[in-house]
Specification:
This protein is of the alpha/beta class. The chain has two domains: about 5-130, 2-Layer Sandwich (Enolase-like, domain 1), CATH 3.30.390; about 135-360, Alpha-Beta Barrel (TIM Barrel). It has 13 helices and 15 strands. The chain has helices spanning about 70-75, 90-100, 110-130, 135, 160-170, 185-200, 215-225, 240-250, 265-275, 285, 290-300, 315-320, 365-370; strands at about 5, 10, 15-30, 35-50, 55-65, 145-150, 175-180, 205-210, 230-235, 255-260, 280, 305-310, 325-330, 345, 350. Strands 12-13-6-15-14 form a five-stranded mixed beta sheet, covered by helices on one side. α6 links the parallel β7 and β8 (about 205-210). The two termini are about 30 Å apart.
Length: about 375
């Protein structure tokens, strides 16, 4: 590969092509929460090709591959904002896409498509600088706490929960998340008690309500769970019910975490104003890519609120490594088959890779095998 450099020594390049590939990644076993039953994740893989030979990579996804083609079409409809452009002008491209989508809305599939392109641009910027993206953002840490989130589902028996919790510990995790939402609260409490007993007091245990409860139900359940020292109670009520979240947060001593379903800094601002969460959980796809994620991390820091990143483990390490107020990343293994490089957990921590860009690259053989024909 022959790179062109400016007088300042930076790589000169323009994006020449956008290529997408649709894949479906099967899960080892069904994922069942209070609101989802998922057997696979469908991804639109994005490749931004440049005249320098560097390629920026990223993906966005849907559960069970639903509406995957809609995401693909929306991404391609915004391609003119990036093709022919120097990816270093990522803020300008983000702003242009934001203005264009105004008539159809600043939430949903439009933001997901923006995120896909924006984060792929950052991968290119890092590769051009031969630096990991988190260092370009201004590094704060070189490793970050990860919690296991690829298991402990509602569909599992209590014995299966205990077995899997112990397996997560053997993999190096020092924190893990289980799901709530059984028909009887007493059953939820018994399952939490069993997992806590199995892992002991030194392992962090988190609980996710997946929006299953009314505020009064969540408060009642939260009080029943207080003896088990939960790190947080996540999305106890409907994601859009900011006042309901605030009522739960005010009533309970345990932290309330939420925000994975909110879009951009404007949605997070509404949550902050409502005092609806003690920990904000931005999702890279919904928040609007790494450009907007950085703004949200700063917004939260300005209000002394910590963040914990939602899914997108590989890409979110760029935020976790640079945002002082980032507590942890959510570790899910669903997308690991797509990558050549693998994440390792040691003493509960992920070491942030020093490879250029986002630090992870698609495995061509795996992509071909999982391609939607």
């Amino acid at each position: 590969m022959t790179l062109k450099f400016s007088e300042s020594g930076s790589v000169q390049m323009k994006i020449t092509n956008l290529r997408t590939v649709l894949v479906e990644v099967p899960l080892d076993k069904p994922l069942i929460t209070a609101i989802h039953e998922t057997r696979s994740v469908g991804c639109v893989l994005i490749y931004l090709e440049t005249d320098s030979g560097l390629v920026g990579e990223n993906y966005i996804f849907t559960l069970n591959s639903a509406r995957l083609s809609v995401f693909d079409s929306m991404i391609k409809s915004l391609a003119h904002h990036v093709i022919g452009q120097d990816p270093h002008y990522v803020e300008r491209m983000w702003d242009g896409m934001w203005r264009e989508i105004n008539p159809i809305g600043h939430e949903g599939i439009t933001i997901g498509a923006m995120s896909a392109l924006d984060t792929a641009c950052w991968d290119l910027i890092g590769k051009a600088a031969n630096q990991p993206v988190y260092k370009l953002f201004g590094a704060y840490r070189d490793s970050v706490k990860a919690y296991a989130s690829s298991g402990l589902w509602l569909s599992q028996t209590t014995d299966e929960l205990v077995e899997e919790a112990r397996e997560f510990m053997s993999q190096g995790f020092r924190a893990m998340k289980m799901r709530l939402g059984k028909p009887r609260m007493a059953e939820d409490v018994a399952r939490v008690a069993a997992v806590r007993e199995a892992i002991g007091p030194d392992i962090e245990l988190l609980a996710d309500g997946n929006q299953a409860f009314t505020p009064s139900q969540a408060i009642r359940l939260g009080r029943m769970l207080e003896p088990y020292d939960l790190g947080w109670f996540e999305e106890p009520v409907a994601s859009y019910d900011h006042q309901g979240h605030a009522d739960v947060a005010a009533a309970l001593d345990m932290p309330i975490a939420s925000g994975e379903t909110e879009y951009t800094r404007h949605g997070m601002q509404r949550m902050i104003q409502a005092r609806s969460a003690d920990v904000l959980m931005p999702d890279l796809q919904r928040i609007g890519g790494l450009t907007e994620f950085r703004r949200v991390a700063s917004l939260a820091a300005g209000h002394n609120i910590p963040i914990s990143t939602h899914i997108f483990t590989e890409q979110s390490l760029s935020i976790a490594g640079s945002a002082p107020n980032c507590l942890s990343v959510e570790h899910v293994s669903w997308f690991s088959p797509l990558y050549r490089e693998k994440i390792e957990i040691v003493d509960g921590l992920i070491t942030i890779p020093q490879r250029p860009g986002l630090g992870f690259s698609f495995d061509a053989d795996a992509v071909d095998r999982l391609r939607v024909r």
